[in-house]
Amino acid sequence: MSGAGNCGRGLPAWLVLLGALTAIGPLSIDMYLPGFPAMTADFAGQAGRPEYTLAGYFVGTAFGQLIYGPLSDRYGRKPPLYAGLALYTLASLAGALATGLGELTFWRLTQGLGGCAGMVVTRAVIRDRCGVRDSARAMSLLMLVMGVAPIVAPMLGGWVVASLGWRAIFCLLTGFGLACLLAIRLGLAESHDTRHAPPLGWRRLGEDFGALLGERAFMGYSLASGFAMAGFFAYISGSPHVFMELYHLSTEQYGWLFASNAVGFILASQINARLIRRLEPTRVLRRAQTALALLAGWLALLPLAGQPGLVAFAAPLTLAIASLGFIVPNATAAALATHGQRAGTASALMGALQFGLATLAGSLTGLAQGAEVAPLAWIIAACALAAWLTHHALIRAPAH
């Protein structure tokens, strides 16, 4: 078993490996988006739309986490990771060979069921190896991946589609899955001692999930970060329509705007990694939630006077997204802090709550899109306000 000896210093190799696992989600979601027009042409005349394949991946990711978390607590972190990555790799290969949208949607759902193992196990491994402060720092370093991948993945996907076709993207994901399997086999030591792990059963699962759902601190941190992430998913869902159709930005201009949001997110997460060396992560989190709530008020008021100018609307959005660099790593570390023996189960439930809220917000944004910015602004503001309310209602303020 690996200890936490090198958790707080430098960039250990195991954390780089966890970064690769974290990249599975952004790569699988963002890299194949440029292939939608080509898929539509290939499957012309068939029922359904390429967007349904994306929804399939989301559904698989949301439910799959609830499977791998308890398994990783009972059998160790690596066996469920092997199973999930193997399933992801096979589903990626099958997606490259799909002959219809229905078949592709099924394999995308299966891809999500497998790939989400990396999300769950990554958080659990960090909890196994690190204390609260170092966990928050490690999570902040992983936010680099979450910020860079959405910038790089669409550009890489666009080049692959233009050069080799959309099926080549799934071949590339197959290769990435195989590479992760090999890297885990060679470079990641087991971090969870299962010698005293209780037997796994439906009753035990019910007790563990019930205890977590009834714990104020865990639910406060999970819902606060979940609502904050929901606002980000609403932005991803609604911003192309708002900025390209209402503000008439070109595809390239929108890409630069999205990149600036990602840069803000990356900078905030790296500032957070340094702040928590001298401040408690929970204190930084509370201040970031307050800042996000104030930005939400700004966003909610802007549309009342008509469509705001581009800068007036984009600036608070960029700051709101940047605040996630302080919120997500600190909330994750705090939520898992007291759940060493069931860190996998806690990580799974936290991830499922986050992904469920995010998917709901993204869907609402898609349904509410119209000829004004108000729906997007108000949904993001509502998510930010809900994050602040749940955090302050369920979690006691840290002592000064």
CATH architecture of the largest domain: Up-down Bundle
In percent, how helical is the residue content?
A: over 70%
Distance between the termini: 36 Å
Order of helices and strands: HHHHHHHHHHHHHHH
Low-confidence parts, pLDDT < 50 over ≥5 residues? 1-5
CATH topology of the largest domain: Growth Hormone, Chain: A
Task: Count the beta strands.
Answer: 0
Write the layout of secondary structure elements.
Blueprint: H1 13-22, H2 24-30, H3 36-42, H4 50-75, H5 78-96, H6 101-129, H7 132-164, H8 167-187, H9 202-213, H10 216-246, H11 251-275, H12 281-301, H13 310-336, H14 343-368, H15 374-394
Short characterization:
Helices cover 79% and strands 0% of the residues. The chain is mainly α and 400 residues long.
Structural account:
With 400 residues, the protein is mainly alpha-helical. It has two domains: 12-200, Up-down Bundle (Growth Hormone, Chain: A); 215-400, Growth Hormone, Chain: A. 79% of the residues lie in helices and 0% in strands. The chain has helices at residues 13-22, 24-30, 36-42, 50-75, 78-96, 101-129, 132-164, 167-187, 202-213, 216-246, 251-275, 281-301, 310-336, 343-368, 374-394. Helix 7 (132-164) packs antiparallel against helix 11. It is globular, with a radius of gyration of 20 Å. The two termini are 36 Å apart. One of its GO terms (cellular component) is plasma membrane. It is found in: Cell inner membrane; Cell membrane. The chain crosses the membrane at residues 12-32, 52-69, 81-100, 106-126, 138-160, 166-188, 209-236, 256-276, 288-305, 311-336, 348-370, 376-395. Keywords: Cell inner membrane, Cell membrane, Membrane, Transmembrane, Transmembrane helix, Transport.
